[in-house]
Design goal:
alpha+beta; six-stranded mixed sheet; five-stranded mixed sheet; 24 helices; 20 strands; about 45% helix; disordered C terminus
Length: about 675
């Protein structure tokens, strides 16, 4: 998705922007986070939300005919647990229609899990806010997606799947307090997780406007990167590689009893052996495989430093218990010795680091290295193609606490040699994407409000001169008819011997050239200073929104763009000379000066008579033009309306481009927009 207005792109718009709730949702692999953006006392605040009934960040899913839950309680139903069903929607029908164990589909899991997530968020009445007196509460859910173009191209499909799961929630009455209920209108917007990670860092005031910063967000299902400067995204990169792959490798290490010698078997062979072995596992005994994530996190510790030396994992296979030490040797196998398969992330975009095709890597370590190399390759100046001077790299997302990820980033970007500051993952890294999504949701909502306001303001200005525009078009038409019909055509008629009658002249249908109308209208608009006035409005609006902006915003509406808007879309204005000259009798009277003989449409005229008619017409220009006036007004009414409407549409498009160009300023100072501060 290019920088198109998201409300238009996804087909949803807020009815009352002032009363909308914005929630950012990081719909990750096995772990979901959500955040609410609220404005309190003129200041934007981001508030983390619990996504299940157990106040825990774990949000695994379990489904069968009886159990449809998320959260820690899922562990009671181990045979039905799913932790990573967020598949690349490159081929939505094939992938989302594929059957999983138990006859479920990815699409079904997505819909039901999202339903449970939003249902539990609504039970937490904080997102409803104070909506007493409202018939319906609008809630916009900004859901993250990887920044690859495979996801970008299918963002609408992803939105459709999630949106469909919410109908049951919208049909329900939600209790605000005893006796007070409200219905909700839930709308999904799919947004880049890379941009969200950037926005989160701006909200934390971690990015200076003049820095060129690389933000790397490492999660369980994808790694994303965004390159930013001055609140503007310079480049994005994403791969379908995530820390969830480590847990799969850890599980296979256990059930296949892999070691240094056989850990390198291919992905396909390992899957075959996995499928044969997994049927022997008794999931109702001992520790479930979901604990592997906790074991992995315990191994690295909350800040990437090993927390526990005594870290073990157990599985019951064929009625016997087997235990493994989750130590350095074990983790080295899972990270550096076992192949992983990475699905392609880019469809029609060349990526020499593998993003445009599915590829097996000899290890998770090498897959991450390929991602970081791909991210570095995106750090180029768009205009010159030269490498960007990177000032800082910010790591966020739970997977970036692993020391080897930081080391790969350090080596690929040559941090020390290039004087790049490498920021360690923050304590809020798990919520960086959901917070960024809530932040960008607020930014987009604010932009939408401002767009409506400025459109109304400019519409009033254009309406004030609509009459003048109409008169200008009609004036051009009259002059063109006089010049082309009464002068050029009659001169041709006089000189052409074969054209002997009045009918030979008046039978021609004449079309007013629309390019002439456009040219005259352009000169009129320039003389009136219309576009200059519109641009002055935009400039004043910019400084009103951002009075402390450290640079100017040079966007301008171009008059030529407005005037060419209806090029090729507007029919030529059609004029019938027969109608303009009125009834036959009046035509005869007009030429009565020729003599006593009666002249009809098909009367053959001599050359001297035709010349007399020509001279007579030129002498009576004003009389003829005055008679044309009423005819012109009726004939051009539709054309004038279409010209004005199309001009307004083009101005609106320019305003949308203007507002999208303001995004960096909103991102850098969203919390202060309401107060008119930057």
């Amino acid at each position: 998705m290019e920088k198109e207005i998201i409300w238009e792109y996804f087909g949803v718009k807020p009815k009352n922007p002032e009363k909308v709730s914005v929630v950012g949702i990081d719909f990750g692999a096995g772990e979901l986070t959500a955040c609410l953006a609220t404005l309190r006392y003129g200041e934007l605040r981001l508030e983390d939300l619990a996504v299940d009934n157990y106040n825990t960040r774990w949000a695994y899913t379990a489904y069968n005919d009886e159990h449809k839950i998320i959260g820690e309680e899922v562990i009671k139903y181990p045979e039905e647990i799913y932790t990573n069903f967020k598949k690349n929607p490159e081929d939505a029908i094939e992938k989302y229609g594929a059957r999983l164990e138990g006859g479920l589909t990815y699409q079904y899991l997505m819909e039901k899990t999202f339903f449970c997530l939003v249902r539990n968020l609504l039970k937490n009445k904080i997102i409803l806010g104070d909506c007493r007196g409202q018939e319906e509460k609008e809630i916009f859910l900004f859901v993250g997606r990887p920044s690859s173009n495979a996801w970008k191209n299918h963002a609408k499909e992803y939105q459709r799947i999630l949106q469909r799961s919410l109908h049951e929630l919208e049909a329900k009455d939600w209790e605000l307090e005893p006796g007070v209920k409200v219905k909700v209108k839930l709308s999904v917007i799919v947004y880049s997780e890379a941009e969200a990670a950037m926005a989160s860092e701006y909200y934390r005031e971690q990015i200076d406007s003049k820095e060129t910063v690389v933000v790397i967000d490492g999660g369980s299902s994808t790694f994303d990167c965004v390159i930013v400067r001055n609140g503007r995204v310079l480049g994005e990169y994403s791969r379908q590689v995530g820390a969830g792959m480590i847990e799969k490798n850890m599980f296979d290490c256990c059930i296949l009893e892999l070691n240094q010698k056989n850990a390198g078997i291919s992905v396909d062979q390992r899957k075959t052996e996995h499928d044969a072995k997994v049927v022997d596992i008794d999931f109702n005994e001992g520790v479930h495989t979901i604990e592997l994530r906790k074991r992995k996190e315990d191994y690295f510790g909350p800040d990437g430093n090993r927390a526990y030396d005594d870290n073990r994992y157990s599985i019951y296979m064929n009625s016997s218990r087997k235990r493994w030490d989750i130590d350095h040797a074990f983790m080295e196998l899972a990270i550096q010795k076992m192949p992983v398969r990475v699905e392609r992330s880019y469809l029609d975009e060349e990526d020499k680091f593998g993003g445009n095709y599915t590829q097996d890597y000899a290890s998770f370590w090498l897959a991450i290295q390929a991602f970081v190399k791909g991210a570095k390759a995106r750090c180029i100046e768009e205009e010159s193609g030269e490498p960007l001077k990177i000032d800082r790299i910010i790591l966020t997302g739970g997977a970036t606490v692993m020391p080897f990820v930081q080391e790969i980033v350090r080596e690929v970007f040559q941090v020390e040699q290039n004087g790049i500051q490498l920021e360690q993952p923050s304590v809020t890294r798990r919520f960086s994407v959901s917070r960024g999504l809530a932040y960008m949701g607020y930014v987009e909502l604010t932009k939408y409000q401002e767009l409506i306001r400025i459109r109304q303001h400019i519409q009033k200005k254009l309406e004030a001169i609509r009459g003048k525009i109409s008169i200008q078009v009609q004036t051009t038409c009259k002059e063109e008819i006089w010049k082309e019909v009464y002068i050029k055509q009659i001169e041709q008629w006089v000189e052409e011997p074969s054209m002997k009658t009045l009918y030979d002249w008046v039978q021609i249908t004449y079309h007013i050239p629309i390019d002439v109308v456009r040219k005259d209208l352009g000169e009129f608009m320039k003389k009136e200073g219309i576009v200059a006035e519109l641009n002055q409005v935009l400039k004043e609006n910019f400084y009103k929104l951002f009075p402390k902006a450290d640079c100017e915003y040079h966007y301008k509406i171009e008059q030529e763009d407005i005037l060419t808007a209806f090029e090729g879309e507007l029919k030529q204005i059609q004029i019938y000379l027969f109608d303009l000259l009125d009834a036959k009798q009046k035509i005869r009277n007009l030429f009565g000066f020729l003599g006593a003989r009666e002249i009809g449409w098909h009367t053959e005229l001599m050359t001297n008579e035709k010349i007399k008619i020509q001279i007579h017409i030129k002498e009576h220009k004003q009389d003829i033009l005055s008679k044309l006036k009423a005819q012109i007004e009726s004939r051009t009414q539709e054309a004038v309306s279409r010209i004005y409407t199309t001009m307004m549409q083009n101005i609106y498009q320019s305003l949308e481009s203007y507002m999208e160009g303001l995004t960096p300023y909103f991102v850098r100072g969203a919390a202060d927009v309401k107060n008119g501060r930057d």
